[in-house]
């Protein structure tokens, strides 16, 4: 089976800023990215059908017989069974949503349709990343740990509740922490560290190379992506990878991309004082939309940073490679490559931004290659109008 995960163009717009720099299926929700979920369920490594400017980094492989799957859809057993038996030349749909197709050469030509009769988990809005994170953590935990034995918790000063719901990969360092998995699983990935005094409630995932600082309060439905650091108080949030929220401060009902940094004592509001539904900036609608949710915090795209003591208002969107600083609350929408975030904010000059990106990547021994540079150049150019003053 040749698996291709394709970007639905409508859904991709609704998932900006995260899809500026990745295909839809590279979004992390639960322990795994959507692409990693499909790889584990199907046993085949997928390729990607995405925007032209992303295609060099996320390659497309076609054969004479291809199974194309909507990259916004999370797999489950019923859906996998349907897709495995999809005949050549057929489309699998639910209403107007194209779920999958089996087509030669990866073409999305006309064909016969089969209607999918079961429920789907579709990550088609940014807030669904954190809103679905708890359920996806549980599904991924069962998938990853099935038939396997956890490494032992050897630290006698660590307090554990619900040990049957805790799984440690090899190389975990755990010291004098509290792990409560009574209401959800806890997954500690390869070579992760949990320092003294950390309090963790499931569902929770600390992915490979991740680090929980001393005294952290992780309140459930939280994913800390690969090689990320977390401290302070975090609830119902997803950090994609290589990002730091290392210090005190609250992060709730939020999604943080890769290569981000939240300065010490930065806080996000995730509930309005009047308990009204939260409105969030939508790139698809070019304005604010009602999420229908009372709880919604910060959506921060890749390579963005904020200074110490930054206060993010309820429902704030920060796009790619912005540097947020200043007194009071920044604006609820901050376009890509913004320097400031308040009245008088300026364009973050591309060369200056790339100097920071280069230094940040070098700290992890990763070079800024021309492929990544071209992606960021494209984002800078195509978002110029969003930075224009009204």
UniProtKB/TrEMBL annotation:
It comes from the Bacteria. One of its GO terms (molecular function) is acyltransferase activity. This is Glucose-1-phosphate thymidylyltransferase. Keywords: Acyltransferase, Transferase. Coiled coil: none annotated. InterPro entries: Bifunctiontional_GlmU_bac-type, GlmU-like, Trimer_LpxA-like_sf.
């Amino acid at each position: 089976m040749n698996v291709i995960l394709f970007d639905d163009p409508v859904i991709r717009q609704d998932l900006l800023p995260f899809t500026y720099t990745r295909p839809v299926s590279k979004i992390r929700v639960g322990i795994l990215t959507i692409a990693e979920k499909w790889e584990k369920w199907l046993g085949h490594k997928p390729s990607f059908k995405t925007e032209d400017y992303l295609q060099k980094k996320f390659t497309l492989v076609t054969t004479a017989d291809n199974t194309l799957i909507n990259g916004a859809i999370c797999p489950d057993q019923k859906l996998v069974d349907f897709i495995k038996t999809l005949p050549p030349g057929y489309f699998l749909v639910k209403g107007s949503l194209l779920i999958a197709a089996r087509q030669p050469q990866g073409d999305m030509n006309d064909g016969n349709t089969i209607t999918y009769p079961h429920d789907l988990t579709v990550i088609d809005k940014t807030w669904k990343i954190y809103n679905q994170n708890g359920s996806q953590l549980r599904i991924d935990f069962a998938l990853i740990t099935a038939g396997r034995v956890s490494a032992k918790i050897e630290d006698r000063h660590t307090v554990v509740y619900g040990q049957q719901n805790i799984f440690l990969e090899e190389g975990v360092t755990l010291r004098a922490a509290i792990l409560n998995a009574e209401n959800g699983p806890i997954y500690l990935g390869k070579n992760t560290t949990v320092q003294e005094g950390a309090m963790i409630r499931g569902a929770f995932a600390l992915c490979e190379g991740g680090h929980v600082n001393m005294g952290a309060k992780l309140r459930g439905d939280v994913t800390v992506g690969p090689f990320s650091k977390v401290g302070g108080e975090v609830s119902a949030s997803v950090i994609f990878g290589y990002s730091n929220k290392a210090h005190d401060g609250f992060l709730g009902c939020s999604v943080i991309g890769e290569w981000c940094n939240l300065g010490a004592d930065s806080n996000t509001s995730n509930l309005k004082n009047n308990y009204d539904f939260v409105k969030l900036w939508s790139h698809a609608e070019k304005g604010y939309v009602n999420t229908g949710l009372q709880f919604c915090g910060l959506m921060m795209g890749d390579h963005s940073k904020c200074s110490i003591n930054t206060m993010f208002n309820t429902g704030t969107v920060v796009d790619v490679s912005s540097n947020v600083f200043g007194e009071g609350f920044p604006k609820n929408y901050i376009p890509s490559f913004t320097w400031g975030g308040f009245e008088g904010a300026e364009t973050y000059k591309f060369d200056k931004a790339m100097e920071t990106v280069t230094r940040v990547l070098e700290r992890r021994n990763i070079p800024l290659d021309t492929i990544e540079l071209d992606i960021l150049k494209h984002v800078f150019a195509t978002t110029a109008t969003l930075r224009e003053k009204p």
